[in-house]
Specification:
Layout (H helix, E strand, L loop, with lengths): L4 H8 L9 E3 L7 E2 L5 E11 L10 H18 L3 E11 L4 H17 L3 E9 L3 E11 L14 E5 L4 H10 L9 H8 L4 H7 L5 E4 L4 H12 L2 E5 L7 H6 L2 H10 L6 E5 L1 H11 L5 E8 L3 E6 L2 E2 L12
Parallel strand pairs: 4-5, 9-12
Antiparallel strand pairs: 1-2, 3-6, 4-6, 7-10, 7-11, 8-10, 9-11, 12-13
Helix pairs in contact: 2-3, 2-6, 4-5
The structure holds adenosine-5'-diphosphate and magnesium ion (MG).
Length: 317
Amino acid sequence: MSLGEFDLIARYFSRPAARRDVLLGVGDDAALLEVPADRLLVAATDTLVEGRHFLPDAPADAVGHQSLAVNLSDLAAMGAEPAWALLSLSLPAADEGWLEAFAAGLYSLAERHGVALVGGDTVRGPRVITITALGFVERGQALRRDGARPGDVLFVSGWPGEAAAGLEALRRGREPEAEHPLVRRYLYAEPRLALGRALRGKATAAMDVSDGLLGDLGKLCAASGVGASVELERLPVSDALSREHPLADCERFVLSGGDDYELLFTLPAADADALESALGPLCAVHRIGRIEALAGVRCMRDGQPAPVAVPGYDHFA
Ligand code: ADP
Ligand code: MG
């Protein structure tokens, strides 16, 4: 690369780690990290490929944000506290403007959540970004997909579907710079780390919505060996979404959109009211259905079965 691989790393990805558990960060052959003795290490990795996970003309700071956010969302969905990240970067050229903005977006999110970038790899190739995020959770407290039980109440956080509508707006040619709430939501969605932590020891199951609410709910149900019913009239539709789209489209975005980093979770019915109130100040949560013994996911409208067809995203479908 024109800038030189080592100059590039030194210039953009070598901010000193602000964490005392980083004994050795970027610069040696590998990082040395101090894992708390009483907790489990939680590890997640996700790859973003240009043209598939982000648009070629996406603002670089948003790409930096998203590549970390998608990983922190996985840690949030486990109830983990994030600590460290590794960045594997494949780039066609050392474009300094792009790198500067990418690093700014990545570090800004990292610093907000106390995450230290402790290493990575830099190669020339198509633009592909892989981040590995590491964090901790107390033994026995992790949120898993496999604990939902019949009778549990099903919740989703925040406003799923906004990011998918924002992406569609971009694809239709809206300028990425536009101060458009849906576009901003797509480019800079915030992982629900505080909510994930608050659900530890309380939710019977949880996962983040990355491939669409209905598809991901199907995965949660399959892992738990249960089914679920979703009350369509209870789906959260944000003002920003309903201002731009007719109700039927809003419903499609909410049920099939990913990229918002919302959490899908289940609470025991006896605790649901109290927990719902307790979570309120932290982030909006919406009761959208319940877990049932009969396998499969069923949508209901006004108490009647209401089939909807919104397949989840499958890279190899
Ligand atoms: P090695 O050849 O030993 O794998 P590299 O030259 O790939 O070492 O990397 C040198 C150092 O820079 C290592 O500590 C590595 O973790 C770090 N590093 C390389 N690329 C990145 C990156 N994109 N972001 C953060 N750290 C990086
Ligand atoms: Mg290397």
